[in-house]
Design goal:
The protein has 205 residues and is of the alpha/beta class. The chain is 42% helix and 12% strand. The strands form two sheets. It has a three-stranded parallel β-sheet, with helices on both faces. The chain has a two-stranded parallel ribbon with strand order 1-2. Helix 1 packs parallel to helix 2. The termini are far apart.
Length: 205
Amino acid sequence: MNTEISRDNIITMARRACDTLMAKFDAPKLPPVGQFHYHQGVFLSGMCQVWKLTGEKLRGAGYSVRGMFAGCVCCTMSGELTLTVQAILRDIDPQWIIMETTGMAFPQNVKENLSDTLGIDARICCLADAKRWPRLLKPMEHLLPLQLEEADTVLINKTDLISDDALASVRESVAGFSSPETEIFPVSMNGRIDPRIFDRILGRN
């Protein structure tokens, strides 16, 4: 079985994500009343073609969408990122801004940029794929420390797809790349996630 993720598969997954978002929430009703949703601003980073599909679809459903194509939010487009965040703070004044960067990003650079230019105290949450973790270790060995060592929290996802022993091994490996202060939580999108985990992601006790 060929498990390679093709460009078409990525676009299909992006389209399904948009369908799920729009089916669950109407844009004027965000954040939903009485639910654990505090953000009103969301950054998504990825392929240009994926952005075109998701952007057009979300804009058509009433969401505000803006494209940033000047490069990477960690370096070449850090100035554009700052200006965009300023505009969101000025025009929307959200309680939270959630920024999803590419898997090749350096989140600490983004955090320092927002802190130095806007005085924003950002937090870093990294997502680790429990199923694919052993296969990612070698090709990503130079990138993983730069992503994980400054993380406030790490979510080990897809824990339902591996054994308890394998999870313990993945957790030990993730901890080896992280700082002693980093909080690590095993989760699965197929199960209920304890709301207290979201509190820790947001830095609340």
